[in-house]
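Revision sheet: structure tokens.
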Amino acid sequence: MELYFSPMACSLATRIALYEAGAEAKFTAVDLKAKRTADGADFFAVNPMGQVPVLRTETDGLITENPVVLLYVADHCAGSDLAPDYGPERYRLQLWLNFITSELHKLVFNPLAQPQEQRWRQSLRARPDRAAVRLPQRPSRRARLPARPF
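Predicted:
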């Protein structure tokens, strides 16, 4: 496997998952501003969206989008116990991965990468009904991410 990543981007989660799984992988750094890999190659040739993570696999080609890449790693690294195989716990994990990707990422992490942009704080305070402000509906006050092992 080969992971295209950028330091401190969401692809860090996949890099951590690969380490946790004990998987062998090649790590290729990507400059997201220039859209070039570390060796100067055009990253758009790998991913026309220009986003990381991208996981190149021998059998399944290119896998993109962080929640999908993370579940692929969990499913294809034998004995990793990174994700439940099936059932409600797996769906809960998918809920959290997608919530982080779709809501928290755009509202919290993107603005943090651009410290000169402070309007996001005012926007967040002005819209308490935003999905990112409220956690996904949960059965109790003790809601947590699924525990390992699965």
